[in-house]
Amino acid sequence: MKIQTSKVKLDSIDRKILEILQSNAKITNAKLSKDIGLSPAPTLERVKKMETSGVIKSYHANLDTGKIGLDIHTFVQVNLKDHNKKNVDLFLSKINKIPEIIECHHITGSSDFMLKIVSVNIQSYQKIILEKVSEIDVVDGLQSMVVLSTLKDSKAIPVAENES
């Protein structure tokens, strides 16, 4: 289970770098340095520092799921039989082996977890739920919500000034 870590101090240049990298992670260091108004060496140093500190966790290609045949997106609320560390760890170990589950959030409220699942069609989604998720011993109940349309899907994280 992921535990929150301490904040990293970011100045306005760091925040600008993060905004640019989120919109174009393939930008060259030369272009990035020009866009933020620094020379290439200190720009690269700042990026490396944010990578090392974990502010920048990784770089990814943002895929169009429809174009690769993953047309069904669902959110699934999961309740465990008993909400304790052993059951949480067992649940997480099982769902981490299901590639169609692309997000898992430990949540408050009437459910214990919220999953985001992508699948080819309703039949494949049903198979994931019936043969994989509901077969996890500690799962007590599921509630599915099929996404009809996505009206906002920003991958960019707002990098406003840290309030301390």
List keywords for this structure.
Arc Repressor Mutant, subunit A; Alpha-Beta Plaits; alpha+beta; 2 domains; 164 residues; elongated
Describe this structure in words.
- By secondary structure, this protein is an alpha+beta fold.
- It has two domains: 12-52, Winged helix-like DNA-binding domain superfamily/Winged helix DNA-binding domain (Arc Repressor Mutant, subunit A, Orthogonal Bundle), CATH 1.10.10; 65-146, Alpha-Beta Plaits, CATH 3.30.70.
- It contains five helices and four strands, in the order H-H-H-E-H-E-E-H-E.
- Strands 2-3-1-4 form a four-stranded antiparallel sheet.
- Strand 2 (101-106) and strand 3 form a beta hairpin.
- Helix 2 (29-36) crosses helix 3.
- The radius of gyration is 20 Å and the shape is elongated.
- The two termini are 26 Å apart.
- The relative contact order is 0.17.
The name of the CATH architecture of the largest domain is: 2-Layer Sandwich
Assign the CATH superfamily of the largest domain.
Lrp/AsnC effector binding domain/regulation of amino acid metabolism (RAM) domain
- Tell me the CATH topology of the largest domain: Alpha-Beta Plaits
What is the overall shape? elongated
Order of helices and strands: HHHEHEEHE
**Whole-number mean pLDDT:** 94
Backbone CA Rg: 20 Å
Give me the count of strands: 4
Strand content: 15-25%
Q: Tell me, what is the CATH class of the largest domain?
A: Alpha Beta
Class per helix and strand makeup: alpha+beta
The profile of the biggest β sheet is: 4 strands, antiparallel
Number of domains: 2
Which blocks of ≥5 consecutive residues have pLDDT under 50?
none
Helix content estimate: 25-40%
The span between the termini is 26 Å
Q: Oligomeric form of this entry?
A: single chain
Q: Strand sequence of the main sheet, in spatial order?
A: 2-3-1-4
Count of discrete alpha- or pi-helical segments spanning 4 or more residues: 5
